[in-house]
Protein: Glycerol-3-phosphate cytidylyltransferase
Organism: Geodermatophilus obscurus
Amino acid sequence: MTVIGYAPGAYDLFHIGHLNVLRRAAEHCDHLVAGVVSDEVLLLTKGRAPVVPLAERMEIVGNLRCVDSVHAETVPDKINTWREVGFDVIFKGDDWRGTPKGDRLERDFAAVGVRVHYFPYTMHTSSTQLRRALDALAGRARRREALTS
């Protein structure tokens, strides 16, 4: 039986943590689908739009050797995504484990026979840290521009 794995994420400002999760996920399934969360869903769920647009994020992720196919995740409910994709295991970073969101994910997927598999979260690199660094650089550039105007 072919095991279909699903690794959802924003994959914005793609970094080593993203690559680690996708490579590890590919080792635990026969066919890996990377779910790239749409700009609209990110805005709805995280309160901010991505830096890199959906089409470009899908192109980046879809060109990784470890990813077999890419799915644009356009609904926030992972069970609805499961109905569209039909995966056997969903992969998440272990920062979800033991949280209300993680507990709900495990409960919802247990009801439909999908296993939740966690991987270690890459602590030293995150899109949030990269976004903060970009914001700081932009702030410096604005201040410098204001001084020269």
Q: What stands out?
A: The domain at 4-122 is CATH 3.40.50.620 (Rossmann fold).
